[in-house]
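In line with agreed milestones, work has continued on tokenised descriptions of protein folds. One protein thus recorded appears below exactly as we store it:

>
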Amino acid sequence: MSDLKIYDSEGERVLSDTRDYSDRIADFFFGGVRLYIEKKSRSTIELITFFRARESEASRAEQYYAVYQADNHRDIFDDFSTELKTKVEDEEGMLLQTTSEDVAVFNSLTRGRHDAPGTPTEHDHIKSLLREGKQLRFGVSSSNDAVGLVKKYLDAPSQRLAIADDISINELDNCDLLVETGADEEFTPIGSTEELLAEKERVNTVHSELKSSDGPTSKKEEIINKIIEVGQVAGVFILVFVFLLITLIVVASLTDIGVINAFDITNLLDAITGGGTSDSAANVTSGTDGMTNASNGTDGMTNASNGTSGKTS
């Protein structure tokens, strides 16, 4: 459901049998307001825009304001343009005038594409500030940029948005997002908005630094951390090996067996036990040799006895 009303520049309702007067429309005209949007409720939105129309080709183009209310704000610009053209041109037989500079915003509403100026980071900050209830003011160089900026934040937590030649007028004090046309640069924050965006950028930078210091943020950093972990484990084994090596060197130096011989377990044990092991082994060998010699002696005696018996026979 929608409703369209037309007012002249003095706030008088026209093109209708109903007589009405709007102080706000008169104030908007003197303040150079080209577009004003207010979300009345979750489902109802109001659009007020300045336009020109003439009764015939030969007549002068008069100045008007259209007040349009609709339930669907997703396609409100297209729906508004269609209904206004039907009302003014088809029903009233008038001609919409689109050549003067002061209707540039109105002309932009009828275009299908509206690109908002600014970087993705700037728009993230704008959304955040609007959620916080801050009033933001921007200057843009073209009417298309102005409409694109307003359209981008129709779904944002902003209730009132406006485009004007001068956004400092009292009638726009209650707006959340204000856009002023005619700036030298494509997208410029005005007044306190510049500081608000700068503060958001500083906070964002700090958060990014803290996030990067919390842990690995890339595959490359993960690989580096894995290498460090492996190096730490290998370091433990190397430390143990060095400790054992030093221990062997110390033992070798204390027992006078030499560093190389320290790796021979027999020599090492001999050094530790004071040579007892080698001596015992030598004694065992000597004992065995003695037993062998005794056995050889017995055999000799036996042979001698046999020889004596042979002679007697």
